């Protein structure tokens, strides 16, 4: 007869592996299905990994996990054509304990899934979960692409990422709309360790993140440049609806960023090691599907749990994986796997920062998919750079006149004072 588990987890990304670890370490019989040759094989992120969500489950995990550099400085660069307005924060407090690290998914995901395996989860890799098996409304297992590949369980945890075939098959969400996802491209460039440390002004094991606004052909999107041990990760994510409208390819946007003189200086000589593309869920709070039902729960990207304003996705995925795992442990004890019993997961997410943060930024989606996006990501970054040039160049003109000219540049870019106030107000509202 077909194999039976207490729980099946689909997807060994951060969400799925944490869910599997949480349940297996409490003695549950867990299957962890992953389509990749190994967990992380094809996974892509920027990427910054945060300490908190994993530390709650695996204390001091960073002493053994394959991580790149601890992030001691975070910069925000607003790019103009040949200039940059920058804001940054560097702190010794980020060193011990670190707040975040840069990482590579192929290594990190494989390590994290290994933790779940050692806790007792049964790895079923190179296997695609093709659909859910139902008994009436109840989900009772998954079909896989293996011969005689049906697996049964009391609960299926759907952690199969942004394209979530299984959530779609449940009917809880359809294809994401083009303004609910951005398409990101990323390149990994090899450079010697000491060159990276010198260019970014950091010591051995320490790193810098730079988020980039501007030079995205006027489209809603953010670029990034992160330091790894002996590579740099550079990439950009742009809303799919914008790419369709402007008929621009994402690699063209990345090329435009890479050609910026200030970026050139940092990446010069870097040899391309990898090139990848991936979707990022950016629909926010209003795009989240129902999270649980009879025999199922959904975690991470499959449920749009990404806080794009703070480039947080892996942390929310791991937190949701833990909450789903803990709910399953409780249901295993009572034997209640009904929609009511598993509803405790939906409730736990509601009480967590996943719900609270995504709700706070609820308005961001309409700001980024609306007409003002072109202004925010095109005209305004350039105007800010021009205004800074005005203010900082000493050319015999009075400061009052300079100030007026700088303000006029910003007003002009925003289509007048009302436009500038409007965009400021909408921006503030979107974040609050
Ligand atoms: P995933 O990591 O997508 O894992 C899903 C897993 O399921 C994969 O291993 C996949 O192979 C597997 N799978 C899918 N379908 C099936 C199937 N049918 N059967 C079997 N297996 C299946 N987040 C951050 O925290 N920090 C960052 O700096 C950051 N930067 C990013 C930059 C880019 C370019 C991108 C694309 C994302 C970034 N994110 C970042 C977001 C982050 O990567 C995601 O939020 C996170 O990976 C979600 O984890 P997950 O486990 O839900 O999904």
Automatic annotation (TrEMBL):
Pfam families to which the protein is assigned, alphabetical: ETF-QO_FixC_C, FAD_binding_3
Source species, domain of life: Bacteria
SUPFAM superfamilies assigned: FAD-linked reductases, C-terminal domain, FAD/NAD(P)-binding domain
Species assigned in the record: Alicyclobacillus macrosporangiidus
GO molecular function annotation: FAD binding; oxidoreductase activity
Lineage: Bacteria, Bacillati, Bacillota, Bacilli, Bacillales
Stretches assigned to the FAD-binding domain: 5-318
Identification of the protein by name: Electron transfer flavoprotein-quinone oxidoreductase
Cofactor section: FAD
Keywords: FAD, Flavoprotein, Oxidoreductase
FixC-like C-terminal domain sequence ranges: 374-432
């Amino acid at each position: 007869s077909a194999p039976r588990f207490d729980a099946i987890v689909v997807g060994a990304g951060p969400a799925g592996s944490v869910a599997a670890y949480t349940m297996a370490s409490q003695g549950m019989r867990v299957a962890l299905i992953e389509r990749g040759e190994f967990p992380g094989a094809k996974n892509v992120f920027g990427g910054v990994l945060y300490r908190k969500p994993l530390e709650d489950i695996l204390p001091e995990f960073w002493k053994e996990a394959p991580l790149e550099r601890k992030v001691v400085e975070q910069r925000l660069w607003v790019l103009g054509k040949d200039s940059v307005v920058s804001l940054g924060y560097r702190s010794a407090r980020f060193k011990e304990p670190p707040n975040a690290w840069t990482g590579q998914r192929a290594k990190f995901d494989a390590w994290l899934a290994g933790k779940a395996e050692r806790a007792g989860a049964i790895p079923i890799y190179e296997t695609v979960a093709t659909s859910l098996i139902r008994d009436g409304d109840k989900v009772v297992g998954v079909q896989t692409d293996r011969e005689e590949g049906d697996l049964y369980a009391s609960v299926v945890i759907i952690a199969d990422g942004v394209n979530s075939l299984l959530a779609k098959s449940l009917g809880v969400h359809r294809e994401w709309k083009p303004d609910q996802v951005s398409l990101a491209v990323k390149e990994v460039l090899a450079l010697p360790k000491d060159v990276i440390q010198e260019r970014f002004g950091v010591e051995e094991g320490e790193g810098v993140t730079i988020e980039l606004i501007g030079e995205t052909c006027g489209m809603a999107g953010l670029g990034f440049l992160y330091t790894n041990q002996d590579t740099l990760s550079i990439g950009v994510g742009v809303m799919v609806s914008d790419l369709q409208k402007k008929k621009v390819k994402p690699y063209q946007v990345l090329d435009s960023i890479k050609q910026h003189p200030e970026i050139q200086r940092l990446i010069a000589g870097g040899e391309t090691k990898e090139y990848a593309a991936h979707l990022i869920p950016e629909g926010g709070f209003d795009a989240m599907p129902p999270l649980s039902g009879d025999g199922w729960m959904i975690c991470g990207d499959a449920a749009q749990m990404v806080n794009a304003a703070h480039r947080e996705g892996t942390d929310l995925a791991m937190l949701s994986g833990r909450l789903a795992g803990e709910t399953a442990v409780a249901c295993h004890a009572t034997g209640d796997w009904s929609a009511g019993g598993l509803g405790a997961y939906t409730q736990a997410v509601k009480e967590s920062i996943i719900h609270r943060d995504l709700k706070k930024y609820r308005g961001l989606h309409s700001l980024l998919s609306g007409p003002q996006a072109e202004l925010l990501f095109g005209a305004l970054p350039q105007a800010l750079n021009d205004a800074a040039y005005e203010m900082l160049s000493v050319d015999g003109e009075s400061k009052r006149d300079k100030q007026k000219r700088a303000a006029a540049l910003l007003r002009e870019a925003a289509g007048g004072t009302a436009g500038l106030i409007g965009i400021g107000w909408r921006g503030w509202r979107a974040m609050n």
